[in-house]
């Protein structure tokens, strides 16, 4: 399996195996294992927390639902859990804009430029209708290189605090 196959499948289906926006965190860890706990996404609150399986990053709300999914692609090698990538755990990085666009077109994923994340030395595109985004860094004088791919949030408004739920 190639990394562009993984990313285009994510863009097309809005999921990577058991990982998707709104997934129950216990289901994810049961299927994929325990991640690295990166820490809180806020200085003042413990939740949401950021977890990582190599370059797959997930934000988890205090109600134990996944609220953000992205794959960091800016490193030299992209690492994913082998169980989510057909047994492969590392992939070459340096994914060029033209290669990503070709892979999306080949997979039947329509896309369009995404103006809100296009400025300065970056550009972005969004896949329709999934709204998955691909954001590229534009090195001076070179073709844009994929920096991150992410699935859109669902506007989650956690009711765990107001409902009095206690979470670990």
What does this protein structure show overall?
The structure is a single chain. This protein has an eight-stranded antiparallel beta sheet with strand order 3-4-5-6-12-11-10-9, with helices on one face. A two-stranded antiparallel sheet has the order 1-2. It is 17% helix and 33% strand. With 168 residues, it is an alpha+beta fold. A hairpin with an 8-residue loop joins β3 and β4. It has one domain. The N and C termini lie far apart (36 Å).
Strand order across the biggest sheet?
3-4-5-6-12-11-10-9
Intertermini distance: 36 Å
Whole-number count of domains: 1
What low-confidence regions span 5 or more consecutive residues with pLDDT below 50? 162-168
Helix content: 10-25%
SSE-based structural type: alpha+beta
Q: How much is the radius of gyration in Å?
A: 16 Å
> What does the main sheet amount to?
8 strands, antiparallel
Mean pLDDT: 88
Number of strands: 12
Shape category: globular
Instruction: Summarize the helix and strand pattern as letters.
Output: HEEHEEEEEEHEEEE
- The fraction of residues in strands falls at 25-35%
> What's the tally of helices?
3
Question: Would you kindly provide a brief summary of this structure?
Answer:
17% of the residues lie in helices and 33% in strands. It contains 3 helices and 12 strands. It has helices at residues 3-13, 25-32, 97-106; strands at 15-16, 19-20, 36-40, 49-53, 56-60, 66-72, 77-79, 90-92, 110-113, 122-128, 133-137, 145-151.
Secondary structure: elements and pairs:
Layout: H1 3-13, E1 15-16, E2 19-20, H2 25-32, E3 36-40, E4 49-53, E5 56-60, E6 66-72, E7 77-79, E8 90-92, H3 97-106, E9 110-113, E10 122-128, E11 133-137, E12 145-151
Antiparallel strand pairs: 1-2, 3-4, 4-5, 5-6, 6-12, 7-8, 9-10, 10-11, 11-12
Helix pairs in contact: 1-3
